[in-house]
C-alpha cells in the first residue's frame, strides 16, 4: 500500500509531489534556504563581534532581553490558563442558563472576565504540593522535620520580607500600589444577554449564583435591558479605618455573647456570637494585618460583658502585655505552665459538665483560652515532649488531647478557644479533625496555603495589603471586614473600667514608654494589694456559676495573687547623679522580684529572640551588670517571663 502524502505546514500551502514522506523543509525553495543560512551566519558573527568589543553592555542587554522574554512568556502562559480554566468553563455554564445564545458563538463576544479578578498568579503557581493526594499532604504537614524546615524558612525570609515592606512603604510605590488596587477593586465582569432571551427571577438568580461560585469576592449585579448586558461589580469597600471609640456605642448595645469584629461593605456590622455556631475562632493574620489589635478587641469586649477568665498562652512573651494585671487575665509564658493551664481549662470544663448533669438549668460565666502563635507553641511542645517522654508514651504531646477535648465539648459549658496560626497544619492543630471545630475564621494578609488549610473553599479570594482589612468566614459566608482598631492604653482602660489591677503592672503606657528614660526609684514600701469585689473572679479550677452551684465563698489566698504580700509601690523621683550597678544574676533577679532561675531563663529567651543581651548590659569584673533603670525598662517590656499571673476575686 503506498504511503500517504504529507501536507505542508499551514504557512506553506501545497502537497508533496511524490507519494512518500519527506521532511517539510524539502518544500522550502533553495534560495530561501541560502538566504536563511546567510542571515543566521550574520547573526552569529554580529553576536560574536558585540561580545568581543562591548562585553559588559552586551551582557546587560542580554540579561534584560532574557528577563523580558521570561516575563512575556509568563504573561502569555497566565493568559492562556485564565482563558482555558476560567473564561471558557464560565461561558459553557452561562450558555446553559442563557439558552438563546447562537450555536456558533464564542466566549469573546459574550463574556468579559478581567484576568486579575481570579488572582491570576494562582493559576500559574501550581506546585508539586498541589498535585499530591490530600492524605499524603496531611502526613507531610504532621512531620516534625517539615515543621522545623517551615519555621526555618519563615525566619530566613523575615529580612527579605522586611525589605519588601520597606519598599512598598515608599511614597511613590505606595501611591502606585493604591491606584492599582483601586483599579482592580473597580473592575467589572460583564455578560451579554441575547435580545430574544426572557430572563425570569430564576434565571437571574442562577446567573448570580454562577458568578459568586466561580469568581471570588462579593458581587452586585446591574441589569441593562436596553443594551442587553448584565454587569457585576464589587460592592463599596469597607471604611479605611474603624476606631474603637467610634463604635463603642454599637459594642455596648450587643448581647453578652457577641463581639463586634469590625465594619463591612456599606458599613454593616460584622458580629461574632459565641453562643451561635461560632464557639471557637481561628485566626490567620500576617504581619501588620491587625492580629494584636483584633485579640485586644475581642478580649476587652468580653471582659466588660462578664467573661470570668482569659487564659492566654503567649510564647512570644510580649504580644498582649497591655492586659497584664487585669483581674480576669492570666498570661502564661513557660511551656510547662502553659501545659498545666490548658489542662486546668479542660478540667474546669469537665467540672461544669458534672454540675450540669445534676442541674441542666445551671449557667456558667464564660472562660476563654487564647492560643497566641500556636505554630510556635506546637513546635516547642513537641521538642519539650521529646525530651521528657518515656518509651511507652505516645508521640503526640498530651496537651493536644486536652485541646481537642475542649474544642469538641466546650460550647455548652461556655468554654471558648481563640487560636492564632501562621498556618493551620495538622501538626500545629494537633490533628486534622480539629480544623472544622473553628466555626469562625478571620484571615488577613494570608498566604494561599493558609487559606487552603483553614478555610479550603474555592474560589480563593485575594488577600488585601490594607492594614486591618480581613476576610471573616462564618458558616458558609465570606465577608470583607475592616477590623476594629484599639490601641494598648485604650484596651487596658476599657477592660479595667475604673478598677485597680490585681498586681503591680509590668505594662508601661505608651506615653511613658516614649520618654527618654524612666525615673529612678529610691525606696520600696510594702503595700496591700487591693482586690476589687465587683467582678466575677475565680481560683484556678473553680468558677462562680450564676446559680451558685459551686458552693464557693470566693475567698482568695494571698499567695494566689501575683507577688502575694511582696507587692510593692515604688515612688518615683528624679534620678540621682551617681548610679549604682546591679552586678550578677542574683542581684538582678532580687531587684525585679524574680527567682534567679526565672531571670536567667527570661534573659536567655530574650537573647535568643532578639539576638542580643539585655540593653545596657556591661561587665563588672567577671559578672554581667546593669543599671537599675535598664533592668526595669527591660522587665516592663517583658511581662514577668517565667512567672504565672493568677486572677483573683
Structural write-up:
This protein has 20 helices and 22 strands. It is an alpha/beta fold. The chain has three domains: 175 residues, no CATH class; 237 residues, 3-Layer(aba) Sandwich (Rossmann fold); 123 residues, no CATH class. Strands 5, 6, 7, 8, 9, 10, 11, 12, 13, 14 and 15 form an eleven-stranded mixed β-sheet that branches. It has a four-stranded antiparallel β-sheet with strand order 1-2-4-3, with helices on one face. Strands 20-22-21 form a three-stranded antiparallel β-sheet. The N terminus and C terminus are likely disordered.
Question: What's the short version?
Answer:
41% of the residues lie in helices and 15% in strands.
Give descriptors for this structure.
649 residues; alpha/beta; Rossmann fold; four-stranded antiparallel sheet; 20 helices; disordered N terminus; disordered C terminus
Q: Layout of helices and strands, plus pairs?
A:
Blueprint lengths: L29 H24 L1 H43 L13 E2 L8 H4 L3 H4 L2 H8 L2 H26 L1 H15 L2 E5 L8 H14 L5 E5 L4 E5 L8 E2 L4 H5 L5 E7 L4 E5 L7 E5 L5 H14 L4 E5 L15 E4 L2 H24 L8 E5 L2 H15 L10 H11 L5 E7 L4 H4 L10 E5 L3 H7 L14 E6 L2 E9 L2 H9 L13 H4 L6 E2 L3 E2 L41 E2 L2 E2 L7 E3 H9 L3 H15 L7 E3 L2 E5 H10 L12
Parallel strand pairs: 5-15, 8-12, 8-13, 9-10, 9-11, 11-12
Antiparallel strand pairs: 1-2, 2-4, 3-4, 6-7, 6-15, 13-14, 14-15, 16-19, 17-18, 20-22, 21-22
Helix pairs in contact: 1-2, 2-8, 10-16, 11-13, 18-19
Amino acid at each position: 500500500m503506498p504511503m500517504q502524502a504529507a501536507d505542508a505546514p499551514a504557512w506553506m500551502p501545497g502537497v508533496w509531489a511524490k507519494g512518500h514522506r519527506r521532511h517539510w523543509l524539502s518544500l522550502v525553495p533553495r534560495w530561501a534556504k541560502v538566504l536563511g543560512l546567510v542571515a543566521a551566519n550574520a547573526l552569529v558573527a554580529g553576536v560574536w563581534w558585540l561580545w568581543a568589543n562591548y562585553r559588559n553592555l552586551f551582557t546587560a542587554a542580554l540579561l534584560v532581553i532574557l528577563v523580558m522574554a521570561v516575563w512575556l512568556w509568563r504573561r502569555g502562559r497566565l493568559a492562556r490558563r485564565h482563558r482555558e480554566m476560567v473564561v471558557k468553563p464560565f461561558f459553557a455554564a452561562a450558555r446553559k442558563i442563557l439558552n438563546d445564545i447562537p450555536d456558533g458563538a464564542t466566549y469573546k463576544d459574550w463574556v468579559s472576565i478581567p484576568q486579575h479578578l481570579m488572582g491570576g498568579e494562582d493559576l500559574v503557581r501550581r506546585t508539586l504540593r498541589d498535585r499530591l493526594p490530600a492524605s499524603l499532604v496531611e502526613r507531610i504537614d504532621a512531620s516534625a522535620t517539615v515543621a522545623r524546615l517551615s519555621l526555618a524558612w519563615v525566619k530566613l525570609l523575615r529580612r527579605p520580607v522586611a525589605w519588601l515592606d520597606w519598599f512598598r512603604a515608599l511614597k511613590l510605590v505606595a501611591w502606585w500600589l493604591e491606584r492599582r488596587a483601586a483599579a482592580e477593586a473597580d473592575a467589572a465582569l460583564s455578560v451579554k444577554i441575547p435580545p430574544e432571551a426572557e430572563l425570569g427571577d430564576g434565571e437571574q438568580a442562577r446567573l448570580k449564583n454562577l458568578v459568586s461560585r466561580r469568581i471570588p469576592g462579593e458581587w452586585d449585579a446591574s441589569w441593562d435591558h436596553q443594551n442587553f448586558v448584565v454587569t457585576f461589580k464589587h460592592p463599596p469597600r469597607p471604611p479605611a479605618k474603624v476606631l474603637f471609640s467610634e463604635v463603642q456605642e454599637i459594642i455596648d448595645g450587643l448581647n453578652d455573647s457577641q463581639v463586634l469584629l469590625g465594619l463591612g461593605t456599606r458599613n454593616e456590622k460584622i458580629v461574632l456570637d459565641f453562643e451561635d455556631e461560632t464557639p471557637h475562632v481561628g485566626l490567620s493574620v500576617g504581619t501588620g494585618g491587625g492580629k494584636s489589635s483584633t485579640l485586644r478587641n475581642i478580649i476587652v469586649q468580653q471582659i466588660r460583658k462578664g467573661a470570668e477568665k482569659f487564659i492566654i498562652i503567649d510564647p512570644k512573651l510580649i504580644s498582649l502585655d497591655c492586659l497584664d494585671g487585669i483581674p480576669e487575665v492570666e498570661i502564661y509564658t513557660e511551656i510547662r505552665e502553659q501545659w498545666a493551664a490548658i489542662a486546668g481549662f479542660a478540667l474546669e470544663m469537665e467540672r461544669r459538665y458534672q454540675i450540669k448533669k445534676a442541674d441542666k438549668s445551671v449557667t456558667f460565666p464564660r472562660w476563654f483560652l487564647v492560643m497566641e502563635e500556636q505554630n510556635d507553641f506546637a513546635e516547642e511542645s513537641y521538642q519539650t515532649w521529646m525530651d521528657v517522654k518515656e518509651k511507652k508514651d505516645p508521640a503526640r504531646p498530651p496537651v493536644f488531647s486536652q485541646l481537642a477535648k475542649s474544642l469538641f465539648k466546650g460550647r455548652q459549658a461556655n468554654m471558648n478557644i481563640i487560636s492564632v496560626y501562621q498556618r493551620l497544619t495538622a501538626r500545629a492543630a494537633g490533628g486534622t479533625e480539629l480544623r472544622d471545630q473553628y466555626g469562625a475564621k478571620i484571615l488577613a494578609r494570608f498566604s494561599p496555603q493558609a487559606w487552603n488549610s483553614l478555610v479550603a473553599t474555592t474560589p480563593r479570594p485575594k488577600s488585601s495589603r490594607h492594614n486591618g482589612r480581613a476576610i471573616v468566614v462564618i458558616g458558609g459566608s465570606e465577608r470583607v471586614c475592616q477590623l476594629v482598631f484599639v490601641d494598648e492604653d485604650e484596651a487596658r482602660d476599657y477592660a479595667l473600667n475604673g478598677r485597680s489591677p490585681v498586681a503591680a503592672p509590668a505594662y508601661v503606657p505608651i506615653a511613658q514608654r516614649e520618654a527618654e528614660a524612666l525615673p529612678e526609684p529610691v525606696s520600696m514600701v510594702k503595700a496591700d494589694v487591693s482586690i476589687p469585689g465587683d467582678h466575677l473572679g475565680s481560683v484556678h479550677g473553680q468558677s462562680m456559676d450564676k446559680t451558685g452551684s459551686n458552693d464557693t465563698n470566693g475567698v482568695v489566698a494571698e499567695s494566689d495573687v501575683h507577688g502575694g504580700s511582696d507587692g510593692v509601690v515604688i515612688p518615683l523621683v528624679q534620678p540621682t547623679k551617681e548610679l549604682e550597678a546591679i552586678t550578677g544574676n542574683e542581684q538582678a533577679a532580687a531587684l525585679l522580684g524574680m527567682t534567679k532561675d526565672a531571670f536567667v531563663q527570661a534573659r536567655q529567651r530574650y537573647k535568643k529572640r532578639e539576638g542580643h543581651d539585655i540593653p545596657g548590659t556591661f561587665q563588672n569584673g567577671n559578672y554581667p551588670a546593669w543599671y537599675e533603670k535598664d533592668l526595669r525598662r527591660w522587665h516592663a517590656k517583658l511581662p514577668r517571663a517565667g512567672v504565672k499571673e493568677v486572677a483573683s476575686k
